[in-house]
Amino acid sequence: MYTFPSANGTGEAGKAPGGRRWLGAVTILLVLLLWWIVAAIQVVPELFVPHPRSVWQAFVDVQTEGYRGGTLLMHLGASMARLGQGYVLAVLTAVPLGLMMGMSRTVRALVNPLLEFYRPLPPLAYYTLLIVWLGIGDESKVALLYLAAFPPLVINAMAAVESLSPQRVETALSLGARRRDVVFRVMLPSCLPQIFTGMRIAVGFTYTTLVSSEIVAAANGIGWMVLDAGRFLRTDVIFVAIIVMGLTGVALDSLIRFAEARLVPWKGH
């Protein structure tokens, strides 16, 4: 049943939405319990589903002794450096372009055909071409992540402008606001919620592309760890890497949501 929020922004019976977060914790505990039971009674061999104790020991070993030339933090740091460069560059260029496409039909007509052509392409489909152009190093991976993050950022920024109420702009102009003021004090604040939605979508898609690119061609990184551990049937290390990926993805999404809560406090009101 849908719970309608009350006037003060709380849910049913005056409870805040965060009051139900314990349900998520229960779900996680049940999954961990099921994992422990499956591993303890060996429903499948431990080679395929390692015991949580083995995974924890692998985590400690990878973090302290390292794995294939680097600790877990070193591999994760290499991945996050690639992700950060590609994603930040995409935000800095795609969002302004999306806003311009929403404001100008000419800009949209010039850019949209190219965007619609490459947007459906799987990133790994043109990754080989980027390797040929930029080499097997981080440059090709950063370029791939940039191109992967670009479409959702542009589309959400453009859609935010298109959904902007004309009355807001007309009211600002009638009160004597200049075009610059309308853009930065009316249009941009109104578009921020949808821009942040695009940022959340883009960071998830970019992280997926990052791991795939490291599996295809890399010498370090969290995605490379999964591939290399699979070659030696180190499922405990694979579990460690997958769990770290999931936790890192949640942390990145939470960071964007935190920034949105600070920059867009009026969302939902």
Written overview of the protein:
This protein is mostly helical and 269 residues long. It has one domain (69-263): MetI-like (MetI-like fold). It is built from 10 helices and no strands. The protein has helices at 21-40, 52-64, 72-103, 105-118, 127-134, 138-162, 166-174, 179-216, 222-231, 235-263. Residues 4-14 have low confidence and may be disordered.
Percentage of residues in strands: under 5%
What's the end-to-end separation, in Å? 22 Å
Q: How many domain regions?
A: 1
CATH class, named Mainly Alpha
In CATH terms, what is the fold-level topology?
MetI-like fold
Structural class: mainly alpha
Query: Helix and strand string, N-terminal first?
Result: HHHHHHHHHH
The level of helicity is over 70%
Largest sheet: none
Shape: globular
Low-confidence runs (pLDDT<50, min 5 residues)?
Answer: 4-14
- Number of helical segments? 10
How is the topology of this model organized?
Elements: H1 21-40, H2 52-64, H3 72-103, H4 105-118, H5 127-134, H6 138-162, H7 166-174, H8 179-216, H9 222-231, H10 235-263
Helix pairs in contact: 2-10, 3-4, 3-6, 3-8, 3-9, 5-6, 6-8, 7-8, 8-9, 8-10, 9-10
